[in-house]
Please model this.
Amino acid sequence: MNSNEYQYVSVRPMTPDDIEAVYRIESQSFTLPWSKRSYQFEVNENKSSRPWVAEASLQDGSKQIVGLIVIWLILDEAHIANVAVDPDFRGLGIGRKLLAYTILKAYEEGARQFFLEVRRGNLAAQKIYRDLGFKIEGVREKYYKDNAEDALLMEMGIINQPLLEKYAGEAIPKSMLYDFQTKENENGS
Ligand SMILES: CC(C)(COP(=O)(O)OP(=O)(O)OC[C@H]1O[C@@H](n2cnc3c(N)ncnc32)[C@H](O)[C@@H]1OP(=O)(O)O)[C@@H](O)C(=O)NCCC(=O)NCCS
Model:
């Protein structure tokens, strides 16, 4: 692989300075977004929380937060509480990489059962969860307050470490990031 053509989007722990950028992605991604205050709590106060960001290096040398994930770790259980990717950077593998990387980190910390809820209609998210090894284990009917949509409960008991390592280390093609950035600039944003 030619490192001039490919580069890794890096995943690192969320800091208080990231919260503005994280909130921007959050509010573009959910009809019921978490507040900035919630993120401050996750980063500064909640000892069970593992909040992470995905950060891309762009063509002009700047860095940009392009994704977020919050995992709650309680004893050997990990709950994926929230995950989102900047709408301009979706479909590049960033969401799957972010999940795979942080699930492996939670595993290193002792997590052995992984849980999440997902809207029945959210096929993009379900695709990634299935790719990583999650299975549907139940349904909470009319769980979401905004449109009474069902929640699917997904679980993963035994992780497929080599598969997660493959997705966690996946290179995000530079050319794709640049295409996205150029498009954004052309739109004047
Ligand atoms: C769900 C989400 C995090 C996925 O992030 P992403 O970076 O776009 O996903 P990836 O690029 O890693 O996707 C990986 C795979 O899913 C596929 N995929 C991505 N978006 C898709 C879509 N809208 N429909 C169908 N498949 C999709 C990709 O094609 C890829 O599969 P492939 O490798 O077999 O081609 C993102 O869509 C998002 O932020 N959505 C809004 C917030 C949300 O719904 N969060 C989940 C709450 S449970």
